[in-house]
Design goal:
Layout: E1 2-3, H1 5-29, H2 52-78, E2 81-83, E3 93-96, H3 110-113, H4 130-158, H5 161-164, H6 170-183, H7 199-219, H8 225-228, H9 233-236, H10 241-268, H11 271-280, H12 288-313, H13 315-333, H14 362-369, E4 377-381, E5 387-389, H15 391-397, E6 400-407, E7 413-422, H16 423-430, E8 438-446, E9 452-458, H17 459-462, E10 467-473, E11 476-477, E12 487-490, E13 502-508, H18 521-525
Parallel strand pairs: 4-13
Antiparallel strand pairs: 1-3, 2-3, 4-5, 6-7, 7-10, 8-9, 8-13, 10-11, 10-12
Helix pairs in contact: 1-6, 2-4, 2-12, 4-13, 6-7, 7-10, 11-12
This protein binds ligand MTE and molybdenum atom.
The site of molybdenum atom (MO) has 6 residues, from loops.
Length: about 525
């Protein structure tokens, strides 16, 4: 792990400076006095105790948070670098979770850059596909979100919110006094948490529910190609897409830091009684709550082990569950957002990470050797007018240029100017038959496990104005590395959907009609989702 010094200082300062201030205050003025805590919150609607919904919601939240953190770390390790800029130029990262410095003397693809992760930490662990980690992440995110919404609604429906929401600025002063105690390793007299929290505790819980959780929810979609290429203002809220990604990561760190401190405080301030509060909803010193609570933590461990097992043994089943649950929601929320965001020439990235295996076939090498003069794009399948087009034919059919932001499933991004034939024009030429719903793009290049790379798009998606059959990148003919002679640009989707080194296009009835029936090479071999809007 490597971290830029400035980033380290920025991250440590908010932790170290307050502790330092607390130590100084203690040294010069002694421990601040705390107001005698009233036994209960006052007022008619003041809550006491923890109802069953709250205790169950607390547990469910813990379970899905653990799954989210573990699958999230696995996703991160697929591109173990965090940047403040959207170009992801090697050497500009502020955090690196890999010892590798990107070699400059040879091609180093983003896939080469992915790292292993212990299955004790990552879900699924080792170097499984980022596809399965994403399925776990998105499935967990939906259940976590649903649980959180129910929790917040009930919080306000029952008066329990009064435990969390500070009712006067005095709470800040009091919270600081409590902090000075903790930071100098003193335990102040605690109110009984069954009836009310101390001021710092209240602020911390408030921040987790009303700041950290919404931030996690808001920064997640800032990584979605469909959303950011439709609403350019969205990733600008944090600054850019990579800052959104970094914040999503730091948010996770904050959750984990809270978890560690929270559990430690539960233990130090009266473990047995506290466990009864949150497990059984009783306020006594019986050990049952502790035993049941430990059992519940054991259950979370077992469920996590099962998740890892399922990821390795039944990846296809997980892929299909995600397709049944996540895909419809994504289709409803994101697939309708037609991409339109454009950047300026000045925004073009100095370096665009390459991905995929260069074609090795004699056929492609021969074509490349004579500048693809002999190349013919074969368009066939369910069309009224099958064609074979030379590069000149394709150029003559029309050209559109767009400067867009590329999103790889691994997490990196980059801006480039793409020139090519709008897919809509090609569709108009070949006239798909009514039963044709999907176009499959076959590559000269091979996938990671051998065999030609291919992927597919719905015709609806290919009619988006930013769906191009690109033959230029940054005003130059497409380079061999980036997909010569032709590649796809479909800006509401992740990079893996944009087949490079295109050999042929075939129109078919559905994604079930080719390969192993999942929609593309990576969907078939790496269990990726077939709708790649996020
Ligand atoms: N034939 C082929 N096309 C491919 C791939 C591949 O492995 N083989 N990788 C995809 C992925 S994962 C990405 S992110 C983009 C990368 O495009 P670039 O190399 O131009 O940045 O290409 C896509 N097209
Ligand atoms: Mo990718």
């Amino acid at each position: 792990m490597w971290i830029r010094r400035k980033a380290l200082v920025l991250l440590l300062a908010p932790v170290v400076l307050p502790i330092l201030a607390a130590c100084l205050q203690r040294a010069f003025f002694g421990l601040p006095s705390l107001p005698p805590t009233p036994f209960e919150l006052s007022g008619a609607a003041a809550p006491s105790g923890f109802p069953a919904w709250l205790r169950v919601g607390h547990f469910v939240n813990f379970l899905f948070l653990v799954l989210l953190v573990r699958s999230g770390l696995q996703i991160l390790m697929d591109h173990p670098r965090l940047y403040g800029n959207v170009h992801c130029t090697p050497g500009t990262e502020w955090l690196r979770l890999t010892p590798v410095e990107v070699p400059r003397d040879r091609v180093w693809t983003a896939k080469d850059d992915a790292r292993h992760l212990s299955p004790w930490i990552g879900l699924p662990g080792y170097r499984h596909t980022v596809g399965i980690a994403r399925h776990w992440h998105f499935l967990s995110a939906l259940f976590w979100l649903g649980n959180g919404l129910i929790f917040v609604v009930l919080l306000f429906g029952t008066g329990q919110w009064r435990r969390l929401v500070p009712d006067s600025p005095r709470v800040l002063v009091e919270a600081w006094s409590v902090f000075v105690h903790y930071a100098t390793l003193h335990l102040p007299r605690e109110p009984n948490g069954f009836y009310r929290y101390n001021a710092l505790q209240q602020l911390a819980y408030f921040a987790v529910v009303f700041v950290l959780a919404p931030l996690a929810i808001a920064t997640g979609p800032s990584m979605s190609p469909a959303l950011t290429n439709r609403f350019r203002w969205y990733p600008k809220l944090p600054g850019n897409r990579q800052i959104g990604r970094s914040l999503h990561f730091l948010n996770m760190c904050a959750f984990v830091a809270f978890l560690v401190v929270h559990v430690a405080m539960v233990a130090v301030t009266g473990l047995v009684r506290n466990m009864n509060h949150i497990v059984l909803g009783t306020d006594d010193a019986h050990p049952l709550g502790l035993y049941l609570g430990l059992g519940a933590i054991g259950l979370v461990v077992v469920l996590n082990a099962l998740a890892n097992w399922a990821a390795w043994r039944h990846p296809r089943a997980i892929q299909h569950v995600a397709r049944a649950i996540v895909t419809p929601i994504m289709g409803f929320l994101l697939d309708r957002a037609t991409p339109c965001a454009e950047f300026q020439r000045a925004d073009v990235s100095p370096f665009l990470w390459p991905n995929g295996k260069m074609p090795t076939s004699e056929e492609w090498k021969g074509l490349a050797a004579e500048n693809f003069r002999g190349y013919r794009l074969k368009v066939s399948g369910l069309v009224e007018n099958p064609v074979e087009l030379s590069l000149d034919d394709i150029r003559a059919l029309g050209k559109k240029t767009q400067v867009t932001l590329h999103h790889c499933i691994q997490g990196w991004s980059g801006i480039a100017a793409w020139g090519g034939l709008p897919m809509a024009e090609l569709l108009a030429l070949v006239r798909p038959k009514p039963e044709a719903w999907v176009a499959v793009f076959y590559s000269f290049g091979e996938g990671l496990e051998g065999g030609a790379y291919y992927d597919s798009h719905s015709l609806a998606n290919l009619r988006h104005p930013q769906a191009l059959l690109a033959y230029e990148m940054n005003d130059e003919p497409l380079s061999a590395l980036h997909g010569a002679p032709l590649r796809l640009r479909v800006e509401n989707q992740l990079g893996f959907k944009m087949v490079k080194w295109i050999r042929a296009i075939e129109f078919v009835t559905s994604h079930k009609a080719f390969g192993e029936g999942e929609g593309g090479y990576n969907e078939d071999h790496e269990f990726f989702g077939e709708l790649a809007n996020i």
